Amino acid sequence: GDYCSYDFIATKDDKLIKIQVKTTEKIHENGAMIFSVTSRNYYEYKIYTNQDCDYFYLFCLENEKGFLYPINRPHSSHITIREEIPKNNMTKGINFAKDFLFENIINTLA
What we know:
By secondary structure, the chain is mostly beta strands. The protein contains 1 helix and 8 strands. It has one helix spanning 102-105; strands at residues 8-12, 15-24, 32-36, 38-40, 45-47, 55-60, 65-70, 78-82. A hairpin with a 4-residue loop joins strand 6 (55-60) and strand 7 (65-70).
């Protein structure tokens, strides 16, 4: 089929919001949920940009939690979400689950 850079479209106040869905199976031993946010096929390897979609919907199969992550936030080929502070107590640059929980931010979409 045709390549489409988003999986579904949501509407809010007559605005179309393009969303790309990514999943991870488990929470790693260090407490991190790591989502690959690339697309691969026989012809290309793609890292999504704001030209492709507006948000990632990130879903963890192990804990059945969903997150909305804006495409314009910094990311590379993976996005890591954590529910707890890492063992090294670093908080700067960490994506905490509470800040991206679907149910917490769905009504704040512009």
